[in-house]
Amino acid sequence: MIHHVQLSCPPGSEPALRAFYQGVLGLAEIPKPPVLAARGGCWFRGHGIELHLGVEEDFRPARKAHPGLLVRDLDDWARRLTEAGYPVTYADEIPGLRRFHSEDCHGNRLEFIEPVSSR
């Protein structure tokens, strides 16, 4: 079991992170411990997912590495992302799974996965 996944973000990007992870994905921001909050970034939780976004001074988006987020109603997630202007690229190479890739507000790759049997 994984507690959380951490992705990187550029300094000062907290408003964009909140707009994407809260506004588009519907995750709730959770408070960081004070000693970690001083470093910047944000933590989010919801839908069985916990993501931590940590500041990297020389930030480069993760284009290959990514979290695989297990979700229900894959098409609703795709609709939310598309309506907000984010790319959605479906992939069907894995039997028994419906999935697509997208990216966050800073270009970090995200994969959304739904088992076919859950539909």
Q: How many helices? A: 3
Quaternary organisation of the protein chains: single chain
Widest β-sheet, arrangement of strands: 1-4-3-2
Task: Specify the overall morphology.
Answer: globular
The N- to C-terminal Cα distance equals 23 Å
Strand count: 8
Class from helix and strand fractions = alpha/beta
Strand/helix succession: EHEHEEEHEEE
Rg, rounded, reads 14 Å
Largest sheet data? 4 strands, mixed
Please estimate the helix content. 10-25%
Mean pLDDT: 95
Low-confidence parts, pLDDT < 50 over ≥5 residues?
none
Summary, kept brief:
With 119 residues, the protein is of the alpha/beta class. It has 3 helices and 8 strands; from the N terminus they run E-H-E-H-E-E-E-H-E-E-E.
